Structure formats: structure tokens, C-alpha cells
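Hey all, sorry for the wall of text incoming. These are the two entities for the joint prediction.
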Amino acid sequence: MGTMLGLKGFSAAIIGGLGSLAGGVLGGLVLGVAEALATGFLSSGYRDAVAFLLLLLVLFLRPQGLWEGRK
Amino acid sequence: MDQDYYYTLLNFIGIHALLVVGLNLLLGYAGQISLGHAAFFGLGAYTSGILTATAGVNPWLALPAGLAVAGAAAFLIGIPALKLRGYYLAMATLGFGIIMYIILNRSRGLDRRPLGAQRHSRRCPWPASLQHPRRLFLLIWPVLGVILCYQRQPGGLPHRPGHPGLARQRSRGRVSRGGHLPPECSFLSGAPSTPPWPALYAHTLNFIAPSSFGFMFSIKLVTMVVLGGMASIWGSLLGAGRSPCCRNFSRCSTIRNGHLRGILMVVMIFLPRGLVRGILDVWELRRYRKEGGNSSDS
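and here's what came out:
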């Protein structure tokens, strides 16, 4: 029940950068667009995988988030 | 037949205990949460299951193959992931777990994808077939015993100081948990030390499906660690044994499902270090007070 939704909300916050409001908005936007693109170009089954791959990439390459969250 | 049932039940408890001990190294001794252990488990189980059932490899060779694949995966994901700490690490491992789950669910190479593969491993002449629950029991429990005994040894794992005041501070969360081992060390010993057991899982069940290795299974493993007690090796055994026993021996469905989560909540509130450590802490504190220690020196 909504587990995936909650997890993706948290991923969006991390992608944008924890601790910044604008980062959360940006993270959500990036995540949503990436998912939609993955559905269109890959397959709808891999939608969630792409979302979490994005999360992994951001965590490994830029752990502070795309929007420079508070350190 | 009835005997086989109990052997199988014990085998499941043993396999879960092995997994929980591995996760306990990371959670209890290093203080880091990994939510991706089910993925390593699944990788190992799939490797060994496909090797034995589809390729007809000897199960005794498939066991180390499962270990190698899952260990390599843990090593590769560990290189970037272990730079992270706290919930960043938890989210990274969780992401990896979900990606692996989706890949297992979707990839075409695996038999009948989401339905899983139900195959009996072929008979192998050497040295013994792993088909019978009793034989598996004789494999799983001695291994578990060796691991438990090794970790009780002085040189095995660092032990927590037995000072009750410190124990009490810890139990109230004033002193940060863990920190005895660097996470790198325990991730590498914890994550790859779990995967040989999924191979056993595939042999015990004769059936593997992606749904056994989803996100909820990772959560369940963490729950087992916490319930049994972090950094408590015997607690792992208790935590792992609790769920299959309750599910199989209680006739009442409330006990089976909802009630036990209530117990988990109560344990977390009153005995935050788990059942085994928590009860020991209470006992140590009582003895400490009886010996005239100042109870308010925390």
C-alpha cells in the first residue's frame, strides 16, 4: 500500500538534495521525467528500475544532491 | 513424512539465522543499515538454482558458484556504496535491491520469469544428494554452529564492554550504537558471507521465484536482527527462529500476522537492543544496583 510511492518520494528528496525545498521539487521533476522517458523508450516494466538507478547514480556521484543541499 | 516437515522447518530457521548473522555484523557491529541483502540472497539462490536445475551442475559445485556471484556483486556494489553512511547507505542498498528484484522479474533468460522456476535438482552421485531435508539439515546446522562458535571466540568479533552503566546508556540511545567495526569490513564479511546460504535455500525449497527476494524480505531480515538483538549472535538465532515458528505452530491468524508486529513495537520501545540483549541489560542493571552502584550516574 503506497510503499513504492513513499520510497520514491524519499528518493526524489535525496536526488534533489536533502534539506533543500527547491532540491526536492527538482528531484521529483527529474525522477518523474526519467520514469516517463524510460516507459516510452525502454519498457514500462523497467520504470521503477530506472528511477532507482537514477537514485544510485546520484548517491554515488553526487551524494549531496543535485541542488547542493545543506551539508 | 511428518519428520521431513520438521527438518524443513529447521532448515529454514537455519538459513534465515545464517543470513541474520551476516546482516547483524553490519547492523549491530558497524551501525549501518543495509536494505539490499535480499538481492544478494536472490542472486546466490538464482545462480545456484539455475546451475543445478537447468545446467545440471553438481549441487556441491553450484554452492561455491552462488557464493562467488553474490560475493562479487556485494563487492562491486560495496566499492561505491560504502562511501555513504546512515540512511544514504540504506537508500543506496535499497535501490540496488529493488533494481535486482525488477531484473529478476523481467529478464527473459530466467525460467518463467515472475512465476519462478520449479525444478528438482538432478540426482548427483557425489558425494551425496542434497535433496533430502535431513541431509540438508546435516549440512546447514553444523555450518551455523561453527559460525556461531567462531563469533563467540575472543578473537572472533569485538565484544561490547560489559559495564552495566554503559550498557544502560546504550540501551537508551545516548551512546551511538555500533562503531566497533568499520562498515567496510563488516559489509564485506557480512554481505558475501550470506550468499552461500541462498544456494541452500534453493535446494531446500526446490523452487525459486523473484517474490522471495523482494524489498519486504530485506525488511524482514532487518526486523529479525532488531528483534533478536543487535550485535548479539544468539539473538540472531532467536530472531530468525521466531517468524517460521510462529507461522507454523500458531493456529490463530492474529498471532501469526498482526499480533507479532505489536510485539515488535513493544520490544523496540522497551528493549531497544532486542530481546536477548535487552533482557540481559535489565538483569545486569539490577545486579549492578544490588551491588551498591549508583543508578543515576548515567
